[in-house]
Amino acid sequence: MAETTPVGDYPWSFRTGSLEVRLAESAAEVEAAQALRYRVFYEEMSAKPTAEMASSRRDFDAFDEVADHLLVIDATEGAGAKGVVGTYRLIRREAASRIGSFYSAGEYDIAPIVAYPGQVLELGRSCVSAAYRTGQTMQLLWRGIAAYVFQHDIEIMFGCASLPGVDPAELALPLSYLYHYHLAPPALRPRALDERHTPMRLLPVDAVDQRAALSALPPLIKGYLRLGGFVGDGEKGALEGQGAVAVAGRPFREQDQIVARLQAFAQAVAVPVGVARAAVDEDAPLQLRQKPEQRPRPDLRLGDEAALDQGAQHGDVEI
Questions:
Q1: How many helices (H) and strands (E) does the chain have?
Q2: How wide is the angle at C-alpha 129 spanned by C-alphas 128 and 132, nearest 5°?
Q3: 5 domain-assigned
């Protein structure tokens, strides 16, 4: 991971070169993050904005008001809001309670995650300006997330991740691979809401070519798997022009565990959208997995740390 330098008295503001990562400190900085999200999601990726979003050229919703907004700021572009080039939206349990739910609850039954007794964190609305999709930027973003996780004693991270496309049949290989090899243990498994549920087990396990499936996965999802992530049951369908799966990370008890995972994650996702690069697999390869019937799955219950660790061996990815 790139060397970072703490900045001033801020709890965990870090800088590498001209880039700094920290939480938004003003409404103007939040609006700059929303404007960046609009450019990436609606102009670059062709999602459909509401009329109000299109008028303001900002991506926003009610969850922005309770979230913390992680920013990467390039000082050469300007101070504060003028320099925002990357962002992640972070919602903790306390913040979600102020609005009544997590964002993901509108698409998935996340009751198993909400019921988890430790601290949980929802990640979302991740984007980076096209010119900054480099390892340095992603490492800095995840250095900030790691600091946030340590500050708030986060044990599980979760959120939605997208696969490009509108036809589940065209996504049969990556969806089936995720279902067969990375399905979350029952105690942490989200499930797409019935009205949005599209089955992921579209191919039998013997028909899944793991190497081809890994190549078909977006870098962000491969990065989450390297971080120790699982996927939920059922994609939410193509209501927004993309398939999506819920991702939950295993609990982390030691800082060195998550730092190592975050390093591999940042390395994995530092790829421009729509650009394939073989080095993603070569730098931090995902291991091919045993077929599900070849590896016993534990009887996993909330609060059973040994079983949870055993279950993670089946669902996460060794670096």
A1: 11, 11
A2: 85
A3: no
Question: What is the pTM assigned to this prediction?
Answer: 0.76
76 conformational bin, left if phi > 0, alpha if psi -120 to 50, beta if neither = alpha
- 97 lies in which domain range? 12-315
7 in any annotated domain = no
pLDDT tens-digit series, residues 232-266:
887 755 433 344 555 666 545 455 555 555 544 44
- 181 found inside a domain: yes
Residue-level pLDDT at 7: 56
Tokens 């984007």 sit at which residue?
127
- Which parts of the chain sit beneath pLDDT 50? 1-2, 238-243, 251, 253, 263-285, 294-319
Structurally, how many domains does the chain consist of? 1
Rounded to the nearest 10 degrees, what angle do helices 255-269 and 135-151 cross at? 150
CATH of the domain at 162: 3.40.630.30
Q: Which amino acid is at 156?
A: I
Q: 111-136 as b/e, with b when 16 or more CB fall inside 10 Å?
A: ebbbebeeebbbbbbbbbbeebbebb
Residue 6 lies in a domain: no
Query: How large is the greatest C-alpha to C-alpha distance in the chain, in angstroms?
Result: 55
Tokens of 113: 């995650």
* 162 Cβ contact list (under 8 Å, min separation 6): 218, 220, 242, 243, 244
24 CB-side CA count, 13 A: 27
